[in-house]
Amino acid sequence: MFTIGEFASIGRVSVRMLRHYDRIGLLAPARVDPDTGYRFYEVGQLTRLSRIVQLRGFGLGLEDIARIVCGDPDPAREREILEAAGAGLRREIAESRARLSRIEAYLRRREGVPVMSTSDTIAAELRRVEPQRIAVLIRPAPGAGPENVGPVIGPMFPEAAGLLAAAGVGDHGPAIAFYTYDESPGADGDPADPSCGDGLTVTAGFVVPSRVREVPGLEVSDLPGGEAAVTTHRGEVSGIGETWAALVDRVREQGMELAGVCREVYWTPGDRPQQEWVTDLVQPVRRVS
User: Fold this and answer.
1) Where is the HTH merR-type domain (predicted)?
2) Angle made by CA atoms 278, 126, 94, in degrees to the nearest 5
3) Residues 209-219: pLDDT tens digits?
4) What whole-number distance in Å separates Cα of residue 69 and Cα of residue 81?
């Protein structure tokens, strides 16, 4: 038997972490002294601890680790969790590489070195878009980025589609979404509070026929028409920010400026893998006077 300090030292984790693993049921001690409350561990438990440490090193959260190490072994479940973690890491790497490329290009421009514009990597067109009627849900998100927006917007489209179906609107158009930052005061009602403006409002739903006036549970409104820069993003939504940045470069190169919030129009059913998604970015613009 090892004391908790000995077990922690051998397993290269802190005593505090072992106590936490015990509290959440991830790794309970083999014995707890009924008089002193001291925890003791068996040598065989080092295998499980090493597995937990390894999975933590992969970047998994404790909830996912528990799904792997607790209960009967399930290779399929373990593979699913690890593949999802790998996909997340690949997205982070791609986003980091893109940010690094922008930094390097910015520094080269400051030094007077010719740099190919990021807008050369996308196809974009300036065109006049017609007004659109939309039926949408409006929900708050804690902030920008896929990690904040994804859990909020994901259920919104199926819910909106269900409400449209219940209202007999079966001939709606593609899914659409746009995002606006919250201007409300901070947690204490003080506009100077650091939490002020951190939140994001997610508007998501579908383009609907102009005859639709009301849909129970949805906000029905008209998006104005006008001049817009339009490009198509193909692939995972985590890369939309890069495509939008390139679109903004193209807008500026054409002597125009942004005139409103960009709309994302999703042409691919949400049950398809994101690698197959086709998304139009519709950025309202105006000519610089």
Assistant:
1) 1-71
2) 40
3) 999 999 999 99
4) 12
The architecture in CATH of the region 2-71 reads: Orthogonal Bundle (1.10)
- CA–CA separation, 266 and 49 (whole Å): 45
CB-count burial class (<10 Å; 0-12, 13-18, 19+) for 129: middle
What is the C-alpha to C-alpha distance for residues 255 and 283, in angstroms, rounded to an integer? Answer: 15
Asked if residue 288 lies in contact with residue 252, where contact means CB atoms within 8 angstroms, the answer is no
What is the DSSP track for 129-179? EPPEEEEEEEEEESSSSHHHHHHHHTTHHHHHHHHHHHTT------EEEEE
| pLDDT the model gives residue 196 | 45
* Residue 109: both structure tokens together: 């421009």
Work out the average pLDDT over 27-50.
Answer: 93
Closest CA to 230 of 278, 275, 172: 278
Kindly indicate the confidence band of residue 18, based on its pLDDT and cuts at 50, 70 and 90: very high
Q: At what angle do helices 45-57 and 4-11 cross, to 10 degrees?
A: 50
For residue 64, give the 3-state DSSP assignment. helix
Position 237 scores a pLDDT of: 83
What is the pTM for the complete model shown? 0.61
Fold of the domain spanning 124-287: Multidrug-efflux Transporter 1 Regulator Bmrr; Chain A (3.20.80)
Per-residue pLDDT at 198 exceeds 80: no
Tell me which residue of 121, 219, 215 sits closest to 176, measured CA to CA: 219
Q: How far apart are CA 267 and CA 174, in angstroms?
A: 6
pLDDT digits (tens, 9 = 90+) for 148-192: 888 999 999 999 999 999 999 999 999 999 999 876 554 444 444
pLDDT, the chain, mean: 87
CA–CA distance, 270 with 276 (Å, rounded to integer)? 10
Residue 167, number of CB atoms within 10 A of its CB:
16
